[in-house]
Amino acid sequence: MKIQPARRVAYEVLSAVSESDAYANLLLPVGIGRAGLGPADAGLATELTYGTLRRRGYYDAVIELASRRKVAAIDAPVLDALRMTAHQLLSTRVASHAAVHEGVELVRVYGGSSATGFANGVLRSIARDDPGTWRERVLATARNTDERLSLEHAHPTWIVRAFRRALAAEGRSDELEDLLAADNASPSVTMAALTGLADVPEDAVRTLYSPLGFRAGGGDPEPLVIGSGGRLRVQDEGSQLAALALTRARDIRAGERWLDLCAGPGGKTAVLAAEARGEASVDANEVSPARAGLVRRALEGIPATIEVSEEDGRTRVERDTGGYDRVLVDAPCTGLGALRRRPEARWRKGPEDVPQLTTLQGELFDAGVRALRPGGILAYVTCSPHLAETVGVTREGARRWEGEITQLDARAVVRGVSRAPIDLPEASDDALHVQFWPHRHGTDGMFIALFERNA
Q1: Which residue, among 122, 135, 111, 123, has the nearest Cα to 14 in the 3D structure?
Q2: What percent of the chain shows pLDDT beyond 90?
Q3: % the chain with pLDDT above 70
Q4: 213 phi, psi to nearest 5 deg
Q5: What is the pLDDT of residues 8-21, one digit of tens each?
Q6: Which of 216, 383, 385, 455 is at 20 to 30 A from 336, Cα to Cα?
Q7: Which residues are CB-contacts of 346 (< 8 A; sequence separation ≥ 6)?
Q8: Is the backbone of residue 38 left (phi > 0), alpha (psi -120 to 50) or beta?
Q9: 427, pLDDT greater than 70
Q10: pLDDT at 428 over 90
Q11: With contact defined as beta carbons under 8 Å apart, do 417 and 241 qualify?
């Protein structure tokens, strides 16, 4: 039996994600292009890939019940085929017999003939009962509320608890299930028209908040990006607002110098460079050579010379201590705010990774402060709502630099930038930051805090 090209593409992406820590958003477009898939098949490959990745934890629970063995004991090529087929059986309208037959064929081709009998039995067991019955069986295994939410919404328990604490800090803990559900919804493609270099297309739908943002409708946005020379670009609205919070925190004075300390993959750098054009100069730094290449590509549409260094941000500032008027620290993080777009991220990190990340984030925060001139502004940004990565880092940073930096009201800045009223909790003396949420704002979960270096 010949495997349908869309299923083959999706399976190979899932396999690369599982075995090589690859990123689906980078591999899938390449696979679709190489296979020459038309729009319908490309849509199927996309649904199979992202749907399987988003709900992987739930499908693993189903597979364990159906097979009576732990998923850790199932060979990776076989498990990937079972997961993808479980998604088709429980969450799509694909005919059960077709899904089972192709799932077994995937196992035969990629996992070996000896595993086909096992796969056939597991998949037929799953197909025998409806999705509602499987949901009841899976949720019956939960030992507490957090485990139930973890299984139902396919988020590791530690992430459920981190989200609960972050929402509770805003007095919004009742929104937890809405947030978890939003992470499992397919996000629309959001684009940015770079300031002074491109206009929002007339037929586009404007985003609610970012003055640069729009949605271009269905289809592949790449022709629009290429046709504009990169001046129209794919970029989440929260990412746009994070960059604009720094550039529009106050009027630009001619001759200012700006630094994007952790610039990869370059979306925010491009916004900074467009906003600075003719008034300020921009430097960028990215420690990863591959991501530095992405930054350079993101800047190709900007008519300005922008240096992109490839150094550790913690030491990069030593040759320009006190040399910058604005510094963006978009710190490496768990990525828990972008699980809609990078669903595999939820399965890659654990709570044990957070302390190492927060140590790095604190060191980059300090480097950003050292780079500032008196009166300069630091934007500390993460794509995560985890309290340890957000207010934990900024409060400790403010304590270390007590008397030397002052936190600014990022909420007032963002409200001033936004095209429409935006739902942000009222600021207090110890909560002047902005936290965006997928379920509330339709953006990635971006955190923004602003600090001024005292004169």
Answers
A1: 111
A2: 93
A3: 99
A4: -90, 150
A5: 999 999 999 999 98
A6: 216
A7: 57, 154, 155, 156, 159, 183, 336, 339
A8: beta
A9: no
A10: no
A11: yes
Is beta strand 405-408 parallel, antiparallel or unpaired with respect to 447-453? antiparallel
In this structure, are residues 314 and 365 in contact, taking their beta carbons and an 8 Å threshold?
Answer: no
CB atoms within 10 A of CB 275: 21
| CB 101 within 8 Å of CB 1 | yes
Please, which contacts does 146-149 make with residues 24 or more away whose CB atoms are closer than 8 Å? 149/176, 149/177, 149/180
Name residue 14's amino acid. L
- The residue ranges of DSSP E strands in 231-346, in sequence order, are 232-234, 256-260, 280-285, 307-309, 324-330
Q: How far apart are CA 438 and CA 19, in angstroms?
A: 29
Q: How far apart are CA 317 and CA 84, in angstroms?
A: 46
Q: What is the 3-state secondary structure (H, E, C) of 149-177?
A: HHHHHCCCHHHHHHHHHHHHCCCCHHHHH
Distance (Å, whole) CA 392 – CA 358: 8
Q: Give the separation between CA 311 and CA 19, rounded to whole angstroms.
A: 29
For 421-445, b/e burial (b = at least 16 CB within 10 A) is ebebeebeeebbbbbbbbbbbbbbb
pLDDT, one tens digit per residue, over 26-38 is 899 999 999 999 9
Identity of residue 113: S
Q: Are the C-beta atoms of 110 and 18 separated by less than 8 Å?
A: no
Q: Is 373 helix (H, G, I), strand (E, B) or coil?
A: strand
CA-to-CA separations, 63 to 75, 90, 117, in angstroms, rounded: 13, 12, 15
Among all residues, which ones are annotated catalytic?
383
